[in-house]
Design goal:
- The complex is a heterodimer of chains A (196) and B (285).
- Chain A is mainly alpha-helical and 196 residues long.
- Chain A has two domains: 84 residues, Rna Polymerase Sigma Factor, Chain: A (Orthogonal Bundle); 90 residues, Winged helix-like DNA-binding domain superfamily/Winged helix DNA-binding domain (Arc Repressor Mutant, subunit A).
- Chain A is built from nine helices and no strands.
- The radius of gyration of chain A is 19 Å and the shape is elongated.
- The C terminus of chain A is likely disordered.
- Chain B is mainly alpha-helical and 285 residues long.
- Chain B has two domains: 52 residues; 221 residues, no CATH class.
- In chain B, the strands form two sheets. In chain B, strands 1-3-2 form a three-stranded antiparallel sheet.
- In chain B, strand 4 and strand 5 form a beta hairpin.
- Chain B starts with a helix and ends with a strand.
- Classes of the chains: A mainly alpha (196), B mainly alpha (285).
- At the A-B interface, helix 2, helix 3, helix 4, helix 5 and helix 6 of A face helix 2, helix 4, helix 5 and helix 10 of B.
């Protein structure tokens, strides 16, 4: 497919766009929090990719490559924007980074309805927005885009062990943020109580 | 808790189904006797589910917009996507004004810029105006009516080119910059590493310029980089986007940009498409 694109086949490139644009959009969306910015970034990513395809060395998959471009451009955009909600994390106690929350709620509740799911999505996106760029990105790649650890390692050019530890730290931090906000895990706890 | 802490990364990997066999056995043995770790694992899983649920569908026409960009290709890549037609029109107008005078200098100067000393002075605004004739603003913005037509993207930026002077020079210049930009751009989205005579990194202001996004997504603002000097009073009320060292970036309304340009408030203008991203850089002295 890459060869076809390099030969000038724009239809071939369109197939790549259709296959990857949703994932690229979601990387940009979750990193920036703005649908408009995410559209901008997505268009820029694919435009750049098209112009740079002749430099694509093929040592990684096209997906890993384009996710890397998307990640870099999203971070670049965040830094350029320098808005308040992309400032340094509001994590209150850096000395506990990497530790679990002190109290772990019982989250073995019953299934929840659409309204609760919507509330949880909102809460987790807000929590995600409070994380440092590096941790936010790895969670987005893993959870939102569904990349395997190997694919994440390839995309970010880090070791597998680093993927594991960085993911853990990101999750621990996110969990702490959500517990401090006080609404996310209460949804589970309240369901447990409703369940009797 | 200290015993449980060593299972932290295993629990996180277990939530992803990414444990090796030995790790799985080790963790399962621990979970049999540890309620807290079982709860923690469940918490990780719930959080993951909510994150997965947060994926959204992009706008229906996004892939069409992307392909439209690709098809425009050589002439499109000067400004960011949402501002592309309006901002591209603005730059093309500038290029129209200055193309005949600037092109031989810029074609050589693109390589010269890479190794230029900080003292090298590009053509000043006033010199540009006299070189190409006064068509109004020093930035060559079309009058409001044409500018708004271009913003609506009627026939896109080529409409402005066709209606303006010397379209051939404009095409040639745009192609020249696009070609040079590609050479400097690395595949993974990172700027080319600076080396002797190489393209500059984004934040290198030692040579007095940086690239910027000419218009944000609502097409009403420009980012103006003020380096080494005093900003005009007109920028006092503009939002500061970035302030680092001797550089301050302002978010300037389009109309103000035009008036500042026509008043000659900017003493130097660089056109920088080295990294294939953004076009116009404005430096004040």
């Amino acid at each position: 497919m890459i060869g076809a694109v390099l030969s000038g086949d724009k239809d071939a490139y369109e197939k790549l766009v259709l296959e990857y644009h949703k994932s690229v959009y979601n990387i940009a969306l979750r990193m920036t929090g703005s649908p408009e910015d995410a559209c901008d970034i997505t268009q820029d990513v694919f435009f750049k990719a098209y112009r740079s395809l002749k430099h694509f060395r093929g040592s990684a998959s096209f997906g890993s490559w384009i996710y890397r471009v998307a990640s870099n451009m999203s971070i670049d955009h965040l830094r350029r924007r320098k808005r308040q909600h992309t400032a340094e994390t509001v994590y209150l106690d850096d000395s506990r980074e990497g530790e679990r929350p002190a109290e772990i709620p019982d989250v073995s509740g019953e299934p929840y309805g659409e309204l609760e799911r919507k509330e949880m999505r909102r809460a987790v996106c807000e929590g995600l927005d409070m994380l440092p760029e590096e941790q936010k990105l790895i969670l987005v790649l893993r959870e939102v885009n569904g990349l395997s650890y190997t694919e994440i390692a390839e995309t970010l050019k880090i070791e597998l062990s680093t993927v594991k530890s960085r993911l853990y730290r990101a999750r621990a931090r996110l969990a702490d943020c959500l517990l401090k906000k006080g609404n996310f895990f209460e949804t589970y706890s309240s369901n447990k109580r409703k369940g009797g | 808790m200290s015993d449980c802490a060593k299972y932290n990364t295993l629990i996180s990997a277990a939530a992803d189904g990414e444990l090796g066999i030995d790790e799985k056995v080790q963790l399962e043995e621990h979970l049999r006797s540890c309620v807290q770790c079982r709860s923690y694992l469940e918490m990780m899983r719930k959080m993951s589910a909510a994150l997965r649920d947060s994926a959204e569908e992009p706008p229906e026409k996004l892939s069409e917009w992307i392909m439209a960009d690709v098809k425009l290709h050589n002439t499109r890549r000067i400004f960011g996507a949402y501002g592309r037609y309006t901002a591209l029109a603005a730059v093309l107008c500038l290029v129209i004004l200055g193309a005949a005078a600037l092109r031989p200098r810029l074609a050589a100067g693109k390589n010269a810029m890479k190794s230029a000393s900080p003292d090298a002075a590009p053509m000043s605004v006033s010199a540009e105006k006299s070189a190409v004739g006064d068509t109004g603003s020093a930035y060559g913005y079309a009058d409001e009516e044409t500018y708004d037509d271009l913003a609506d993207g009627a026939d896109g930026p080529m409409q402005a080119v066709n209606e303006a002077a010397d379209p051939e020079a404009v095409y040639a210049y745009a192609a020249d910059t696009a070609e040079n930009a590609e050479e400097d751009y690395e595949a993974d989205g990172q700027p080319a590493q600076a080396g002797p005579g190489d393209a500059l990194s984004e934040f290198d202001t030692s040579r007095g310029y940086k690239k910027y996004a000419a218009a944000d997504y609502d097409e009403k603002f420009f980012e103006v980089a003020v380096i080494y000097g005093e900003a005009p009073e007109e920028l006092a009320d503009c939002e500061i986007l970035l302030s680092e060292g001797e550089q301050t970036d302002y978010r300037v309304p389009k109309e103000l940009m035009q008036s500042l340009g026509s008043e000659g408030a900017f003493s130097e203008i660089y056109f920088d498409d080295l990294l294939g991203e953004y076009g116009l850089v404005i430096v004040l002295n």
